[in-house]
Amino acid sequence: MAGEPNLLNVRGIIPANPEQNIPIKPGTGAYPFPVEPGAWAAVHLGVTRTQIMKDASASAASVVIRTVTAGKTFYLTTATLSVYHTANAYGSIIIRNVADVYVGPVAFCYCSPSIAGICTLTYPMPIVIAAGFDIVVTNNLGTSIATISGWEQ
What we know:
It is built from no helices and ten strands. It is mostly beta strands and 153 residues long. It has one domain (43-152): Jelly Rolls (Sandwich), CATH 2.60.120.
């Protein structure tokens, strides 16, 4: 083998297999940052999670997609937004607190005349939304269609 051309000697390199290099059990302290267990488990460490996927549409208005259940926390993992109109228009997915004040955007999308604007965002660290807060889809002129997913616990 040593005499064959175009061979690369890779001594000392360890493949990044999950079994070897990447901690695969959340919460072990092996990560350099805090890790919230993913949405894949309905029950994790004795905590029951409710999987949620909701959608709503708004036409020149604001519409609540979901209000976080009292006593629960919603972990938003994915948001998809599409906007369409025959003129320039924009739409957004926004978090609104219990006093109905917008506290933060989740997604924003713009469309040109007759060309839809579409965005899908996946959050590696879920956006944590408190009980009583609303997730709202808005649109200034055309139509926005939004889908959110995550879990509540």
